[in-house]
Amino acid sequence: MKKRVWALLTALAISLSLAACGDEGDVSTPAPAATGGDGGSWAVYWYLCGSDLETNYGCATTDLSEMMEVQLPENVNVVIETGGASVWQNDEMDPSKLQRWLYNSEGLQLLEEQDTANMGDAQTLYEFLDFANTNYPADHVAVTFWNHGGGSVSGAAFDELHDLDSLDLSEMYQAFNEVWPANTADPALELVGFDTCLMATVDVASVFQNFAKYLVASEEVEPGNGWLYSGWLGALAEDPSMDGAALGRAICDSYYEGCEAVGTEDQTTLSLTDLTRLTPLLEAYEAFGQEAFASAAEDPGFFAELGRAAAQSENYGGNTREQGYTNMVDMGHLARQTAWMLPSAQGVLDALADCVLYQVGGVYRSEATGLSCYYSYNGDVDDFNGYATLGESLAFKYLYAYGLTGELDESGMEYLSELNIEELPDRLTLADTDWDGAALDVDEDGTSFLSLGPEAGDILSSIGFSLFYVDEENDQMLLLGTDNDMTADWDNGTFYDNFRGVWGAIDGHLVYMELSYEGDDYNLYSVPILLNGEEYNLQVAYDFTAEEWSILGARQGIDDSGMADKELRLLEEGDQITTIWQLASFSGDDDFEMYTAEELTVTADTSFGEAPLPDGTYSMVFEMQDTVGNYAYSDAVLFDCRDGEIWTTV
Q1: In 137-260, at which residue ranges do the beta strands (DSSP E only) sit?
Q2: What is the pLDDT of residue 229?
Q3: CATH code: domain of residue 6
Q4: Domain final residue pick, 427, 456, 475
Q5: Same domain for 403 and 326?
Q6: For a surface tag, which of 86, 226, 379, 403 has the fewest beta carbons within 10 Å of its beta carbon?
Q7: Are 290 and 223 members of one domain?
Q8: Of all helices (H) and strands (E), which one includes residue 55?
Q9: What's the CA dihedral at 446, 451, 454, 459 to 10 degrees?
Q10: What is the pLDDT of residues 390-423, one digit of tens each?
Q11: CA-CA distance, 364 to 542, in Å (whole number)?
């Protein structure tokens, strides 16, 4: 990764620059703000919470080095607060201190320092913003966050020194509002940006329309290289007369160019949203939610339809049992997938097209429309409750509350009465069926199938399968993973296997893999591995048009705190991969446990593809899921594979 390669050079660059500014003990008082003669001054207030990204990889040090490649004019200041990391990969920044810096035409200067404080706390953010605004005002101000991000629920700025506490949206609002009172008609700031994961959400946009004209953020997890500071600050240095829209475009373009330079562009997203045009989108989103609620009240089978649309909509951060859940889905793609049953979806699409001014994205994020919204993929009520206190749309909050719990509180029922809905039918879930252990049949072609009837379409949000290798002689079962390579007849509720006797493999070595996204053009998979002894999830794509597999990189998933891993680790020659399998006894009812299987060394030709399954017996179980997180599993079908032939029995 670029971040690792440049770490030592970066540390040296910062050390030399800081040495030129004086001894560490010689802390300067804030210098007068530089202003341009034409009133076109700019200030960037950079909230730089280093976290493990700096401790382990030197990512913050690298971005500081990129910044220092730019010679700023006198009318541009960058005010920086550093903290939140247990180690800084340079000789000057002190992890035991919260430090404030100024980068301007005279270089990098340490302004002041104090004992460490939690950068995931609203008070810490407020004090920095107040300091920067008081001492370094400008005609145009951008506030940027640097760290991990977790979407609408978890927020950003996870402080490694304070149990990974983060700033949620209410804390951000509180801090900003104390410095710049909320004003959607005339916001004080030119731009707010997140060099973090997952923060291009409608809820984030709703918060910051009170304070800024433009938002720059990513729907998806960012790779570790992040924004290219030499690129966008260089553009600002060359043309300080630019407005926030022009600066946002420069951030987006230089970010994508930086990703292309190091090979991390395939799943990138970054968008520029005009927050002054956001209100029509919020109104359209609320109308969209109201129509969805009316549909659910008329037919609770609507939840299953919505769940299947969400499953086939581009979503971000993983959203699998192996990787964890962010529950963030692209707003526009979800609207397109539901437009056939919710005409109000077109209003969302039109409003999105008007307020999202610009975006960049990789080939495996081609459906992104610039802003994401919440959808509960895992049916976790606690996660939803966290969203309900912060989220934007009342209609969707009440819709999801009803869908997940089957009821609404008094305020929810009052809201429904305003929509002329007086009562709610019982919603249907897998708990209302006897489908767990449902029998399979085999047709004359040797294909197994599951028949549930038309009501399956009113209950199931998705159906796929789990595949096992069965070794009765040694009383073992191996779980190979999950996929959706099957034929689904939703009208009649009949589902057919498409077992072909092949499975995913790295250089011919079979792996456990889990489907993470099912699209029209490509599927994405997660493959748990040990990479040089550390736990990672290898990201793999299958392109239906090209009929090709590709390895996109490796991530470590979603932390228990809700923090998304920002370090996309590309495979390098010489890396050691240990494949991981899930094992249980065949005769018992013990849980599957992970264990390490094979070790292989990455070469220049390492690739992912399908490999024939060895001769033996394999078992497939159809896996049903509803919108509240319930699962049901069919009876098993057995495939006996011998010499390229497959015999099917149930």
Answers
A1: 140-146, 156-159, 165-167, 189-195, 212-217
A2: 98
A3: 3.40.50
A4: 427
A5: yes
A6: 86
A7: no
A8: helix 51-57
A9: -120
A10: 888 999 999 999 999 999 999 999 999 999 998 8
A11: 10
Q: Does the residue 639 lie in any domain?
A: yes
| SS3 of residue 114 by DSSP | strand
The percentage of the chain sitting over the pLDDT mark of 90, rounded to a whole number, equals: 83
Is 31 a member of any domain? no
User: Which of 206, 232, 265 represents a domain boundary (last residue)?
Assistant: 265
For residues 435 and 421, state if they share a domain. Answer: no
Give the per-residue pLDDT at 590.
84
Same domain, 337 and 249: no
Q: Which residue positions in the chain have pLDDT lower than 50?
A: 1-38
How many independent structural domains does the chain possess? Answer: 3
* CB crowding 127-142: b at 16 or more within 10 Å, else e: bbbebbbebbebebbb
Pair 471, 587: CB distance under 8 Å: no
Residue-level pLDDT at 4:
34
Q: What is the DSSP letter of 569?
A: B
Residues 453 and 507 in one domain: yes
pLDDT digits (tens, 9 = 90+) for 564-614: 666 678 999 999 999 998 999 988 888 888 889 899 999 999 999 999 999
Q: If we measure between CA atoms, which residue out of 79, 74, 72, 77 comes closest to residue 36?
A: 74
Please report which residue ranges of 263-371 form alpha helices under DSSP H.
278-298, 302-311, 331-338, 345-355
- Sheet hosting strand 502-506, strand order edge to edge: 509-510, 502-506, 608-612
Q: Which of 215, 274, 273, 227 is nearest to 253 (CA)?
A: 227
* Structure tokens belonging to residue 4: 């690792």
Closest CA to 244 of 134, 358, 371, 146: 358
Residue 385's domain comprises 280-427
Name the pTM for this structure.
0.89
573 contacts 532 by C-beta, under 8 angstroms: no
User: 168 CB contacts (<8 Å, ≥6 apart)?
Assistant: 153, 154, 155, 390
The 3 state secondary structure assigned to 228-243 is CHHHHHHHHHHCCCCC
Q: What pLDDT shows up at residue 226?
A: 95
User: Distance (Å, rounded) from C-alpha 366 to C-alpha 359?
Assistant: 11
Going across the sheet that includes 356-361, the strands are 107-115, 97-104, 76-83, 42-49, 140-146, 189-195, 212-217, 269-274, 356-361
Question: Long-range contact list for 203-207, CB < 8 A, 24+ apart?
Answer: 203/152, 203/169, 203/373, 203/374, 203/390, 203/391, 203/392, 204/152, 204/169, 205/273, 205/275, 205/278, 205/281, 205/371, 206/278, 206/282, 206/392, 207/169, 207/172, 207/173
In angstroms, rounded to a whole number, what is the distance separating the alpha carbons of residues 280 and 649?
57
CA-nearest of 142, 280, 141 to 206 is 280
Q: Which residues contact 491 (CB under 8 A, 6 or more apart)?
A: 454, 457
- Mark whether 475 and 378 lie in a shared domain: no
pLDDT score for 564: 64
Query: Would 30 be classed as within a structural domain?
Result: no
Confidence (pLDDT) at 9: 35
Structure tokens at 64: 């500081």
Residue 32 lies in a domain: no
In this structure, are strands 631-642 and 448-451 parallel, antiparallel, or unpaired? unpaired
**Do 205 and 300 reside in the same domain of the chain?**
no
Same domain, 303 and 219: no
Tokens 């028949």 belong to 451
CA neighbours closer than 13 Å in the CB half-sphere of residue 650 = 20
pLDDT at 323: 78
What are the tens digits of pLDDT across the range 470-495? 999 999 999 999 998 999 999 999 99
* 356 three-state secondary structure: strand
